[in-house]
């Protein structure tokens, strides 16, 4: 299996069988996001402990396979990460999706990098970049306690 096929398989798996698709119990931060162009919606729920570590993360929402796969992969990767690591991973992912060919993060193992890199092909389709990044921007809003809904049309 070549790399492109592996990436497609990861996206299809997470798109059809999203991980952490539920409303977390006892969450203490959350945010909503919406992509009005294609109708993707996401609501991210976080439980951040006293050490500023994500002890639980989940999402509810609906949307295209890219949007759902990205939210699923994101929630899988962020569990048990501290706030600093989360912000670094968000920045690294957004840079990779928009500009860089590779991830720079040292906070991911090879398997985790492969999951994230599976979304790298969307940069060839500018309209799909917003689908892939919606959950990530919404996670940022949740961490920052932003009460405004994340709207992909207002993001670069």
Topology:
Elements: H1 3-16, E1 29-35, E2 40-48, E3 54-62, H2 65-78, H3 83-98, H4 110-117, H5 126-143, E4 150-151
Helix pairs in contact: 1-2, 2-5, 3-5
What features would you highlight for this structure?
Sufe protein. Chain: A, 4 strands, alpha+beta, 4-stranded mixed β-sheet, 156 residues
Q: Can you describe this structure?
A:
This protein has 156 residues and is of the alpha+beta class. It has a single domain (3-147), classed as Sufe protein. Chain: A (Alpha-Beta Complex). Helix content is 45%, strand content 17%. Helix 1 (3-16) crosses helix 2 (65-78) and helix 3 (83-98) runs antiparallel to helix 5.
CATH class, please?
Alpha Beta
List unreliable stretches of 5+ residues. Answer: none
Q: What Rg, in angstroms, do the CA atoms define?
A: 14 Å
Number of helices: 5
What is the average of the pLDDT values? 91
Q: Which fold name corresponds to the CATH topology? A: Sufe protein. Chain: A
Classification by helices and strands: alpha+beta
Adjacency order of strands in the biggest sheet: 3-2-1-4
DSSP summary, beta strand count = 4
* First and last CA, distance: 34 Å
Sheet with the most strands? 4 strands, mixed
Give the percentage of residues in beta strands. 15-25%
As for the number of domains, it is 1
Order of helices and strands: HEEEHHHHE
